[in-house]
Amino acid sequence: MAAVADAAVPVAALRHKVSRPMVVAAVLVVWLVLFTVLRGRQTLTLAAADLTGLHRWLNDVNDSIGANRNSNPVFLYFFNEIRLVIDNLVTFVQSLISQPTGSRPVPQVGWLGVVGLAGYVSWAVGNWRVALLAAAGFTFFGLQGLWQESMDTLALTLSAVLVALLIGIPLGVWAGLSDRFNRIMTPLLDFMQTMPTFVYLAPLTLIFLIGGASAVITTVIYAAPPAIRITAHAIRSVPETTVEAADSLGATRTQQLLKVLLPMSRRTVVMGVNQTIMAALAMVTIAALIDAPGLGKTVVQALQSLDVGTAFNAGLAIVVMAIVLDRVTTAAAARTGARRAGGPFLKWRRPLLAAGGIAAAVLVYLSHTYVWAAEFPGDGTVGTHIASAADTATTWLQDHLSGLTNALRDALTNGLLNPFQTLLTDSPWWLVGATLVALGAVLGGWRAGVTAGACVGLLVGTGLWSDSMTTLASTAVATVLVMLLGVVFGVWMGRSAPADRLIRPALDAAQVMPPFVYLVPFLALFGATRFTAIVAAVVYAAPVAIKIIADGVRNVSESTVEAATSAGCNTWQIITKVQLPMARGALTLATNQGLIYVLSMVVVGGLVGAGALGYDVVAGFSQGELYGKGLAAGLAIVLLGVMFDRITQAAARRTRA
């Protein structure tokens, strides 16, 4: 027995010494050794024009659905009816502000009425500053020569937000009141918010065809989760003592909801509306790939023809619309929270609002009655000048900075991206799969390993293993760069309050912009290459990672930092030995969010030469014979997202434990 006990001590000591990073390093070393021996074997490569049995079957399913769409009872009495209702809603909103109807050569409400309504509504729910911003922003759309495109985008966004809130707020209230329903909804919402925007397009066009109605339905599905989640959080955040007080006064459950829970969570719910609007705008622009009208269509066409000037002009309009909608809803939330405080001009607000309402009504009447008030004056010369300036700047950058940009692109591509991509695509599929499963199990536990194994098996089944590995390589490289930026700026912001106040507003503004917008400037700098998609993905994902790391560093106990300082540690030692190790939970969470954001942007980069799964999806929309392959690519993107999310979330939980 003594001998057994003595033998157990070294084993226990060995287990203690073998850390998780050492196991990860061992797995990677084994992978590299086997790669040198087995390189080029069983790589499951598929040519761009080739199809697998699954792809042909999906094509047949698409053809069958198209042939029986008007006879199959499920479509005839369910899906077609949903599409008809949404189509009528979209058509109605478009007829109000963007599209001519019947014999009218202009919409029901012309530009002057829309600008007046935008300013008045912004003032009513916010303040006079955002009212001026809204009026100026909407006028700018006309000056750009993009009035109708902007109003089409706004019409689709408003339609989607209306339906998303009608669905999301009741479900959020239910999830806030019921623990059981909340447990059911949470993993579903996690899954929906994990999927990149591209993924929603292909399967929904299979059911609802292409066009504005499908774009709105897709946007509703993408934008509803924030409304549900934030509303549920708002309801659950109401203090229990307040609810108990209402219960002791004899209030029924309905009275508690209407008189206590909803009024006290109003500000948070309005912030949920803000997030829903931002998600809807981002999705509506990407839905241009399924023939949704508006600014997104202009950007897509310009990107496909490498017309940087036109893309920049339309992208600028999208940014302005995002800023206006964000500022208005943010001001509405702030006003909701401060409404009870009042102010010296509160007594004048109602008369002024009444007068403003009359003025807005007059502008609507004029724009409805007179062509001069309905059609935006001018020929969009401002937009022409913006596009020309963007083209001139692009030419100058390419002429004078091409050496620097090409050197940067080649260094990262040849030094990091190509070797890692070769390692993934030239290794046997089962070797890469085994490595992913092992890494999942080591980092996240056996459940994460099982999830990784299931995702690997399904990725093989899609027939797009090589393209999936190419996308994985771009995602991994971009995520490494995101984390480098996140650590540098996050530590700076976490340690310096002035730096936080300086940088955080810029990060907040960056998170407002839809993904399409990020492609345009880097297309001008680097051309249509996969490097463009990687840089855009880094810039798109970095803000969320930086903010998470900054908050993690800031939350490290000051007494711990002071103790390290008193022990003689310098700044570098405090950061590397104290703050970052104690913020490792935030680092892991930042990696999780960075991966998801990067993946969504990398696949969007299929529009500018990123290739792989993003290209497969885009090609599936434009070439009917590749539809099944595009649908399978969407599934592969989902599988990559789920695998990344499960492993990193499990790793974050293990780190916190």
Structure, explained:
- The chain has 657 residues and is mainly alpha-helical.
- The chain is 83% helix and 0% strand.
- The protein has 30 helices and no strands.
- Helix 22 crosses helix 28.
- The longest helix has 31 residues, at 147-177.
- The two termini are 34 Å apart.
- Residues 1-16 have low confidence and may be disordered.
Identify the notable features of this structure and list them briefly.
single chain; 657 residues; mainly alpha; disordered N terminus
Give a brief outline of the structure.
This protein has 657 residues and is an all-alpha fold.
SSE layout and pairing:
Elements: H1 2-17, H2 20-38, H3 53-68, H4 73-97, H5 111-125, H6 128-143, H7 147-177, H8 179-194, H9 197-208, H10 212-237, H11 240-248, H12 253-264, H13 266-286, H14 295-304, H15 308-338, H16 346-369, H17 371-374, H18 381-400, H19 402-426, H20 429-444, H21 446-462, H22 465-495, H23 497-512, H24 515-526, H25 530-554, H26 558-566, H27 571-582, H28 584-604, H29 612-622, H30 627-656
Helix pairs in contact: 2-20, 3-30, 4-7, 4-10, 5-6, 5-16, 6-15, 7-8, 7-10, 7-13, 8-10, 9-10, 9-30, 10-13, 11-12, 13-15, 14-15, 14-24, 15-18, 15-24, 19-22, 20-21, 20-30, 21-30, 22-23, 22-25, 22-28, 23-25, 24-25, 25-28, 26-27, 28-30, 29-30
